[in-house]
Specification:
By secondary structure, the protein is α+β, with helices and mostly antiparallel strands. The chain has five helices and ten strands; from the N terminus they run βαββααβββββαββα. A five-stranded antiparallel beta sheet has the order 2-3-1-4-5.
Length: about 240
């Protein structure tokens, strides 16, 4: 192995190479590929035993980026795609009653996957929360009294509802500028602590200006009868993101 290359070992404590089903191995390999990134320059080499160890060779050009991704997890500052890949692998391990680790063979760089040992977070049932969403209006319409409204915020599509009065006003902004809508969302939190928006009923909107979200919330709290004065924690999950 060239000095500029490196190997990463992903260890699963619940299996040996002889007991790990091929279909499950494929799932772990896919998740690991998403975590490491640089998919054209990361290569599966072999399975080593006692516990199962999946060995990957990283081409020289990809080593800095792969190290950066792994270090971001160790520093609790990982990009969304890295975080999602880590969570996916950890869920596989938990389902297999396993724990895992990923480390660079010739360095101290390593991360652990708690898997079965991860402390279970409380899974909340659906709750209603006043909130604000930003996005471009990309779809509106329907025959019912409640009109479906779709807002695009980057790669995220917020599926909302509005009454016909609000919908008529929204219609002129189709594929226009970014809108900020206010209303009541229904949220759920899963066992990983991730909040998901199930639906959002729009009660008002405005064309987005340079005002910050906190400024907008301040305006809403100044509206008599808006209900915003009773909202204590505006960080959850007011912004429309999936995180808590």
């Amino acid at each position: 192995m060239a000095e500029s290359e490196c190997e990463y070992r992903f260890t699963i404590d619940a299996f040996t190479p002889e007991t790990l089903p091929m279909s499950r191995l494929a799932e772990y390999m896919a998740g690991l590929a998403r975590l490491l990134g640089e998919v054209e320059r990361v290569h599966f080499v072999r399975l080593d035993g006692g516990s199962t160890e999946m060995v990957q060779r990283i081409e020289p050009e990809a080593v800095p980026e792969v190290r950066k991704r792994i270090q971001s997890i160790a520093c609790d500052d990982s990009p969304n795609d890295v975080t999602a890949a880590f969570i996916g692998l950890n869920r596989l391990l938990a389902a297999d009653n396993a724990t895992g680790s990923l480390g660079e063979t010739e360095s101290d760089l390593a991360i652990n996957f708690p898997g079965r040992d991860q402390q279970k977070l409380v899974t909340y049932g659906a709750l209603n929360q006043q909130g604000v969403l930003d996005g471009e209006l990309i779809r509106i319409g329907g025959r019912d009294e409640t009109v479906p409204v779709h807002l695009r915020d980057g790669d995220v599509i917020h599926i909302c509802n509005a009454d016909r009065k609000i919908a008529r006003r929204l219609g002129s902004h189709l594929y226009g500028g970014t809108l900020r809508v206010q209303g009541v969302g229904r949220w759920e939190r899963d066992a990983d602590g991730t909040w998901s928006l199930r639906r959002f009923n729009i009660t008002e909107f405005e064309i987005l200006d340079a005002a910050s979200l906190s400024e907008v919330v301040g305006r809403l709290r100044g509206v008599e009868g808006s209900g915003w004065m009773n909202v204590d924690d505006t960080s959850m999950p007011i912004s429309g993101t999936s995180g808590c």
